[in-house]
Write a structure and sequence with these properties.
alpha/beta; 10 helices; 7-stranded mixed β-sheet; binds 4'-deoxy-4'-aminopyridoxal-5'-phosphate
Length: 355
């Protein structure tokens, strides 16, 4: 029987990105999508109470102008050097569409954020994955050949490993004729930023998010910083796709979050402390733990398979991330939760591995 409609020949063929599960049961511990376990700043709660709902009848500001202004002041750069989007996924997607239009392949590591190959495929951008070294670090020399652009997550996900800014600068320098995107989604947890280099290299775009260190994943706020010509190009493409993207509430609440540096630093500090304690405990339980510069741990047990631990944790309603993928099949990515959540998690892991 052949009942495949003729229009299927003209479909854009994609294999969608598979995000971590969003389980609904009440008593779960969710350590699988690198969200922040703490609430946003009290200033965000205040701003939420003061939201003028009657203003929702109007379209939001074009280009999230007031948030862009706050971000520029926060980072001490020009408003013309900032682009805001609906989560860094939107910013990265728009950046792929804007900057990667060469016949030459774009380059990124074989183990990295698994959305990169999905956007490349969706936008029909040729790409080539450069294998990380055996210890999951990036070999800078892999990014010095001919290419159509480079995208690197620093620190990397799911490995949690960071690169030195000097190494990234080498990559940027070797690729002055294409755009190098550095995805700094996790940089606030200990990574080394290359933001100061945007004034030295007009081919560098730095992408950040409010989803991790600012506890605002549900508001969907991301941004990019770079030479004003890069930002102009991004705005032109974005406005050719959809003019009003970030909603009015996100614009206000994102701006409020930037007003509370003390809370931001405390929140990040708590997560970093918990990460170090939990990492130490996991080592005692027979895990190899990668040195993390993020809000998650990438671990592998010396004897018990990652899949087994993942499944047993899930039975206990504790969700971590398992990737059924070459090279990392025996690793788990564990988001750092609250101290209390991680206590329960460690107890469950003890029950599984100390049998
Ligand atoms: N980059 C990396 C490396 C990530 O892990 C994530 C989170 N899944 C994102 C970007 C996107 O985050 P968001 O769209 O919430 O800003």
């Amino acid at each position: 029987m052949n009942n495949v409609p003729a229009w299927t020949a003209n479909l854009r063929k994609v294999t969608p990105y598979v995000p971590g599960e969003q389980p609904q049961e009440g008593d779960k511990i969710k350590l699988n999508t690198n969200e922040n376990p703490y609430p946003p700043s009290p200033k965000v709660f205040d701003a939420h109470r003061k939201l003028d709902v009657s203003a929702f009848s109007l379209y939001p500001e074009l280009s999230a102008a007031s948030l862009v202004k706050r971000l520029a002041a926060y980072h001490d750069i020009s408003e013309r050097e900032v682009f805001a989007g609906v989560g860094s996924d939107d910013v990265l997607s728009m950046s792929f569409l804007t900057f990667f239009n060469s016949q030459k392949p774009i380059l990124f590591p074989d183990i990295t954020y698994s959305f990169y190959p999905v956007w490349a495929q969706a936008y029909q951008i040729p790409y080539e994955c450069k294998p990380l070294r055996g210890d999951f670090t990036v070999d800078v020399d892999d990014y010095k050949g001919e290419n159509g652009g480079v995208v690197i997550a620093n620190p990397n996900a799911p490995t949690s490993i960071g690169m030195a800014a000097t190494e990234i600068e080498e990559i940027i320098k070797a690729n002055r004729d294409v755009v190098v995107i550095i995805d700094e989604a996790y940089v606030d947890f200990g990574g080394e930023t290359v933001l100061p280099l945007i004034h030295k290299y007009d081919n560098l775009l730095v992408v950040r998010t409010f989803s991790k260190s600012r506890s605002l994943a549900g508001m969907r706020i991301g941004y990019a910083m770079g030479d004003e010509r890069l930002i102009q190009a991004l705005n032109d493409v974005k406005e050719s796709v959809n003019s009003y993207t970030m909603n009015t509430a996100s614009i206000s609440l994102g701006a409020a979050s930037l007003e509370d540096e003390t809370y931001f630093q405390q929140n990040v500090g708590k997560i970093v402390n918990t990460r170090e304690c939990v990492g130490g405990e996991l080592v005692k339980l027979g895990f190899e733990v990668k040195e993390s510069q993020t809000n998650f741990l990438f671990v592998s047990h010396k004897e018990i398979s990652a899949k087994h631990i993942f499944e047993r944790l899930k039975e206990k309603h504790i969700y971590v991330r398992y990737f059924d993928k070459e090279r990392i099949r025996n690793y788990l990515r564990i988001t750092v939760g609250t101290e209390e959540q991680m206590g329960v998690f460690l107890e469950a892991v003890r029950e599984i591995v100390l049998v």
